[in-house]
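Thread: Newbie trying to understand structure tokens

Hi all, I'm a second-year student working on a class project, and my supervisor (Dr. K.) asked me to get a predicted structure for one chain before our next meeting. I've only ever worked with sequences, so writing a 3D structure as a token string is new to me. If someone could post the tokens and maybe explain what I'm looking at, I'd be very grateful. Here's the chain:
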Amino acid sequence: MSHPIAAAPPSSAWWTSDAVVVGVLVAGIAVYAYGAVRTWRGTGMVRGVAPWQAAAYGAGIAVLGVALLSSLDPAGDMRFWAHMAQHELMMLIAAPLIVLGRPGGPLLRTLPRRWRGRVRRAARRRGLERAWWILTTPAVALAIHAVARWLWHLPATSAAALADERIHALQHLTLFGSAVLLWWTLIRGRYGAAGPATTATRSRARTPASIEASELSSRAAGGATPGARSAGSRRAAWSPSSGGAPP
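---
Reply by user tm_fold:
Sure, no problem. This is what the structure looks like when written as tokens:
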């Protein structure tokens, strides 16, 4: 596949300082850190977000920073290998690290208590759960990611992304977003190593928001997790007490 070749930028421009990208990454770290600290204060590190999960999330953000702010970004305008390396860092390294970090829990912890209840109720709506159940079917998640890869690496769309920063941002967003969906399905989905299908506590998947909100509300109350309290229920969430790998 051909790839447009541009003139080499000066060495001083090989490290970028895109204000939007920097702002998003810093906000991602700040919100997660604030939520994680609140979780640890309320439930402790054992039952809350584990330190290794926080480290995984931080590493994922750092990899995104390397992909989007380092010399790979301007080099991608000139060299196809750099362009592909940038995308693979985002999809194969940053995305699974962020999924392992379980950002849903800390994000919910940043909300007021009454809002968390609203999020939990909204996430449990049958239509939303059904849509998430379909999206996190392994074949569907894989197909979505494969289509995103294929569309954005056609010569026409690739050239358009290089010519327009808005299209380039959309390219990165869809590639990374579809990768997160795929990795969530593989790691935390109902067929994943840490998913509810590996336990005896549930028979169908729920949205990340409903899972995190249920776990956090249970832990804050000092009781057993939803999965431990209703081990036969269709609406029970995964819990450490139910066995299997942690989500």
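A couple of things are worth pointing out once you decode it. The chain has twelve helices and no strands. The first helix runs from residue 19 to 47. Feel free to ask follow-ups in this thread.
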